[in-house]
């Protein structure tokens, strides 16, 4: 899967096989599968004990507990559940920024490709969507490794444009049980959109992707800033004082997103596209708890 998009090396793909997705909330899917749910059943992870009842299988009796307490207890396990992992990638015009591997849109799509591979290799179902103009553009639904090339072709063929309109998209995404949104969130409606995510029964993450010059604009007199989605133009003075003010506003913005995600039970990661996708997957996202190595 190294030819063309997403262009991962065989070594990186081998390392993806050792990763697993983890979310702050448990799964609520219906079918037996590879992720953990609060539903108690016959999965592999021990949950707790309950007093033995007639008809319980003898092999589930905890004989060590009986030796300690003189009473029969039945072991209960957390049932593993299948989940459809929805990868929603913002392909609005603001994502069409940056050069080469640091291009925000390309970065988000390659990151989505890596996460899709992690999920499918853990026997999860993956739904790939693009977010644009308040709509969801559906891509392939992948249920096995053999379906990954179709997802990669879809993600590799996308071109950014239009507006995200996250407020409208959030309402469409709230029904997804497990959601990962990849976006720069650079629009006024970001708060309304993310407020609709992370509702009861939904697990997920918001991966916020920003280009290097959005993290640290270069100094050098007046700069004309153009909103890629609205066309609004502003001239700003990037003096040391102006740059310090920009950093404060960026920190406040990222803090507000992080706080919103925390209240919604979502994992949040702010990613600099100067960091290689491979490093983000192997080092940055495991540090947030989204990936287990």
Automatic annotation (TrEMBL):
Superkingdom, taxonomy of origin: Bacteria
A Pfam family matched in the record: DUF58
Domain DUF58: 48-238
UniProt cross-references to InterPro entries, sorted A to Z: DUF58
Protein name: DUF58 domain-containing protein
Organism phylogeny: Bacteria, Bacillati, Bacillota, Clostridia, Eubacteriales
